[in-house]
Design brief:
alpha/beta, 5-stranded parallel sheet
Length: about 260
Amino acid sequence: MAKKDKKPVVGFYGLTGCAGCLLSFIFNENEIVSLLGMVDLAAFPFIKGKQGDKEFDIIFLEGVVCSNDDLDMLKKLRAKTKILVSLGACASTGCIPAYRNFIDEAKYLPLMYEKVHRIKDKDPKPIDAYVHVDFTIPGCPPNREEVKSFIKQLILGKTPRLYNDPVCVECKLNGNHCLLDEGKICLGPITRGGCDSVCTNGRFECWGCRGPCPDANYEAFIALIKDKGHNSRTLKERMQSFAGLKLPDELQIEDAPDYVG
Ligand code: SF4
Ligand code: SF4
Ligand code: SF4
């Protein structure tokens, strides 16, 4: 980390992604002003140049690795920074783009652009599949307050910690009626909270955008969902949507015992 009397040199970058993680930050003028008060912001898409030769204290990286260009950029950024933070679900779990890992090529090829060579050259993967990642800020997109709190903790010399309880904990504290009892498939029991159960507060199921919580009991959850009469194939597809590559291996294979209905 930077010395205490000096602001940390921070860069925000994006690999392949929707830019939503970055845009959610810069769409609010106050957030940028607040950020500039804390750090020496040396690179931010749409605002500041790429700073090719700069050394960084912290780089926040959005997006998924799905091309050789992405991988080259990722390796260069890793070499330039003391701390690399995966920003958002794409960088951390692979998110929706990584769903391509779970479907037959024949099904998605007709949907792709004519010039597919760049898109085809890597199966989409989160950045920790290729380089060491120091910290993760989950979510699609991540919560701005979480990003700011993360930076503050680093500046104070503390080690930022992720919220480890499942979404259900915050959901219950918020007084919500459980969507599982309404016949919906909600991934709250196996998903890392910290989002204040924003989806279930609005009566939408949790789709797992913050990735699996550390002590997720998949067997119990799957049994519960099956007991409620849901098709396990549907459940599997739901679980793979945002964090399929972070599920235990035995839950990812097509003929997973007791799992694919
Ligand atoms: S995590 Fe979500 S908001 Fe961020 S780049 Fe990926 S799809 Fe967009
Ligand atoms: S609605 Fe979802 S997050 Fe809330 S308690 Fe039920 S399963 Fe958990
Ligand atoms: S409730 Fe689930 S899907 Fe919604 S933000 Fe939280 S972790 Fe993501």
